[in-house]
Specification:
2 domains, 10 helices, 208 residues, Rossmann fold, globular, 63% helix, mainly alpha, N-utilizing Substance Protein B Homolog, Chain A
């Protein structure tokens, strides 16, 4: 079985559990991998997590789309597996299309910074290809260094256009892994970069 197919099966199981319990998806993901008997490669885990998290983050938008096309059939009357399989497929379609349409939809040179954080490798690759053609001085990428190197490898010649501008993992090291801390560290680094600073404390930069 292909790695991507396996990731999709795991993501579907996570969505099924979320639909039944409505527990936080982060908690469901953590418990899912803890109880899995045979560990999976990091690529499988990352893609499955990205699919499950992304689908839940966009579930309201996805459900509107599905309901629009489900003639004479309410979503809540569908089998749980069918409903979440459609959610998963729609999420992948939307993220693939958004990545491919980025240059046409947005004039990237009107901005000073961009942060790529779709939690989806293929979408991130599309975004980075588009950003490599821009003149943005700051491009941030969420995720660990190994993820950055994989994406740069997949970018091919565009990697060199982007490497000197790419901040990955994105953000300043301020401690803490909570969403609020991550957001603050990213905003701090973007602000410092736009201002031509390095994010050092005033105690080191203040004169006299």
């Amino acid at each position: 079985m292909g790695l991507r197919r396996k990731s999709r099966e795991y993501a579907l199981q996570m969505l099924f559990q979320w639909d039944i319990t409505h527990d936080a998806i982060d908690s469901i993901i953590e418990t899912f991998w803890e109880t899995l008997e045979v560990p999976e490669p990091a690529e499988v885990v990352e893609f499955a997590n990205a699919l499950a998290t992304g689908a839940i983050e966009q579930v309201e938008t996805i459900d509107v789309i599905l309901q629009r096309h489900a003639d004479n059939w309410r979503l809540d009357r569908m089998a749980v597996v069918d409903r979440n399989l459609l959610r998963l497929a729609t999420y992948e379609f939307l993220t693939e299309r958004e990545g491919a349409d980025l240059p046409a939809a947005v004039n990237l040179d009107d901005f000073a910074a961009a942060v790529v954080m779709s939690h989806h490798l293929d979408s991130d690759l599309h975004y980075l290809h588009a950003l490599a053609q821009s003149r943005l001085p700051y491009v941030g990428l969420l995720g660990p260094a190994a993820r950055r190197e994989k994406l740069l490898g997949d970018l091919g010649p565009d990697a060199e256009k982007l490497r000197t501008r790419l901040r990955a993992p994105v953000g300043l090291d301020i401690g803490g892994r909570a969403p609020e801390s991550i957001a603050l560290s990213i905003i701090g680094e973007v602000h410092a970069a736009i201002s031509g600073r390095h994010g050092r404390p005033f105690s080191e930069t203040a004169q006299g």
